[in-house]
Design brief:
single chain, 455 residues, alpha/beta, Aspartate Aminotransferase, domain 1, Aspartate Aminotransferase, domain 2, three-stranded antiparallel sheet, 40% helix, globular, binds pyridoxal-5'-phosphate
């Protein structure tokens, strides 16, 4: 059961099938364009959508809104330094601001960054600086059905080959994403992280953690890596940060706040250069685009997020939803992580070809059937067509992500989702595909307009 009880509630919108049909047609079958009051269960993202604790709200009241040198900043600095060990800490309004500031300070055009998998904004910020982002996921990541516990690992052989190969002089940094969001929310083992760190050190390349879900990664390490069985999640997290030279953090995930993040570094000279950009574009270094109360809520959130009871219940929620999905006959990317479930829409809807977007078709059906909002991670997100509309790039898998916001939905909400999954799966062969009628040149899944393909 959830290790908390409810003190403040927010009604969720209840809609009729007719209302959902007309809403979906109005937004041209793009779920990002729905109004939140047309959504009953919102599984679009776990970013900034969690519930605050009473202690976080109390901390907000102690927020010091001084422009410079606030008490909130000093509490924030102390908490982040204790957790990470990094002495130089810059607050930012969210993770991608940390990416932009670090990469535009550190990267030169033509350089390369390596990662287990770059998250989409991380990749975009590398490319905006004229650099190339290369993903080196481990081979085990390719098997969606195996229950190998650390599919988020980097491929160490390819990492070594790249760091010692002909392009070695162009490699600017290595980014390890914990957990591997672009790779299905799968965790990275401490052994893999330590070996990646040793390779980086031997080749004099900085290692940066993209630490958005550091606590969820640490929890999975305590569960599945024998050497860490008797460690607390907090101890694992502290050790992980100390293997790297710095981190990028979106506190909207494992900070359990609605907005915030930070960039933390060992290198004082680099941090000083980043600070100049921070002042010009985010805010003075003691608030970085956040209010004092936001900083205090992050401090409290970081202390709550490694609580084993909280992490256990989060794993249980994902495990329960995974069970409901399998029972409905829908395969998932195994094993389930903590922040989301990835449904194998390609397998459920073999009659829909990739460029009619099985994942998106399933997303639309979950909305029509039960007012559930989710997001496709398949050929609508990763694919492309040529000028004549013929497929030119197809995603490796056609997935649908059900993100699980922190401390927000109860087990009976999950059971409701399970009922909707079952109804949708029962009539899977009648679900139509979709075609794009209008799209943006970049990150098209956010803005495209679609229509159902009638057979
Ligand atoms: C969310 C996320 C980011 C970007 O953070 P924002 O706060 O959304 O800007 C970067 N990396 C990973 C792994 C993320 O999940």
């Amino acid at each position: 059961m959830e290790p908390y009880r409810i003190k403040v509630v927010e009604p969720i919108p209840m809609t009729t099938r007719e209302q959902r049909e007309s809403a979906l047609a109005r937004v041209h079958y793009n779920l990002f364009d729905l109004r939140a009051d047309e959504v009953t269960i919102d599984l679009l993202t776990d970013s900034g959508t969690g519930a605050l604790s009473a202690a976080q709200l109390a901390a907000a009241m102690t927020g010091d809104e001084s422009y410079a040198g606030s008490r909130s900043y000093h509490r924030f600095h102390e908490a982040v330094q204790e957790l990470t060990g990094y002495p130089h800490i810059l607050p930012v309004h969210q993770g991608r601001a940390a990416e932009r500031i670090l990469f535009s300070t550190l990267l030169e055009p033509g350089q390369i960054t390596l990662s287990n998998t770059h998250f989409d904004t991380t990749r975009a910020n590398v490319e905006l600086n004229g650099c190339q982002a290369q993903d080196l996921p481990c081979p085990q990541a390719q098997d969606l059905d195996s229950d190998e516990p650390f599919k988020g690992n980097v491929d160490l052989a390819r990492l070594r080959a790249a760091l010692e190969g002909p392009d070695a002089s162009r490699i600017a940094l290595v980014i390890m994403t914990l957990t591997n969001n672009g790779g299905g929310g799968q965790p990275v083992s401490m052994e893999n992280l330590a070996q990646a760190a040793a390779l980086c050190r031997a080749n004099d390349v900085p290692l940066i953690l993209d630490a958005a879900r550091f606590a969820e990664n640490a929890w999975l390490v305590t569960q599945h890596e024998p050497a860490y069985k008797h460690h607390s999640p907090r101890q694992v997290a502290e050790e992980a940060f100390r293997l790297a030279d710095g981190c990028l953090m979106s506190a909207k995930k494992d900070g359990i706040v609605h907005i915030g993040g930070f960039l933390a570094l060992n290198d004082g000279a680099l941090a000083e250069r980043c600070e100049l950009l921070l002042i010009a574009t985010e805010g003075f270094p003691t608030y970085g685009g956040l209010a004092g109360r936001d900083l205090d809520m992050i401090v409290q959130g970081l202390s709550e997020v490694t609580d084993p009871a909280y992490l256990q219940s989060r794993a249980d929620a994902a495990g329960h939803l995974a069970h409901l999905s399998r029972a409905a006959g829908i395969s998932i990317l195994e094993p389930p992580g903590l922040h989301a479930l990835y449904l194998n829409a390609g397998r459920l809807l073999p009659h829909i070809r990739p460029h009619h977007y099985p994942g998106h078709a399933l997303a639309c059906q979950l909305y029509l059937e039960g007012g559930i909002r989710s997001v496709e991670l398949g050929s609508l997100y990763l694919g492309a067509e040529d000028a004549d509309g013929n497929p030119s790039i197809t995603a490796p898998y056609e997935l649908l992500r059900l993100a699980i916001p922190r401390r927000t939905y109860t087990q009976s909400h999950l059971n409701y989702i399970g009922d909707v999954l079952e109804k949708v799966a029962r009539n899977a062969d009648r679900i139509p595909g979709y075609r794009i009628i209008e799209q943006a040149p970049m990150l098209r899944h956010f803005r495209s307009k679609l229509e159902p393909v009638t057979p």
